[in-house]
Amino acid sequence: MTCIFCGIADGSIKSQLIYEDEHVVAFKDLNPQAPTHLLIIPRKHIARLCEADEKDAALLGHILLVAKKLAQQFDLKDFRLVTNNGKGAGQSVDHLHFHMMAGRRFLWPAG
Ligand code: AMP
Hints:
22% of the residues lie in helices and 22% in strands. The chain is of the alpha+beta class. Strand 2 (24-28) and strand 3 form a beta hairpin. The site of adenosine monophosphate (AMP) has 12 residues, from loops.
């Protein structure tokens, strides 16, 4: 089964790339839900957060630091960083990704 985000990570599927390093890729969401809406993904295929394990600890920490770097790069003081784990939570792509959204007011609790 092909994974669209693996394709984006390896460059075989086009995206609006924002950031990449050895372990992580960030690109613009195709269907933005906020003026700034980026997706941060590991290059490694992990279906969802609950599929990660202790071996992924450094990778998961690195993703958060990439989010911080992007916040600095885009001068985002307020942003929301969220991952949907499972269909019931709204996950539609089975490759771990963090939505980084900014530029509008966000409700809490999230809808
Ligand atoms: P989720 O519903 O949490 O699994 O989020 C998946 C996100 O991926 C959605 O916000 C989609 O708009 C986005 N998406 C799906 N395909 C692409 C793509 N080819 N390029 C950029 N974003 C995409």
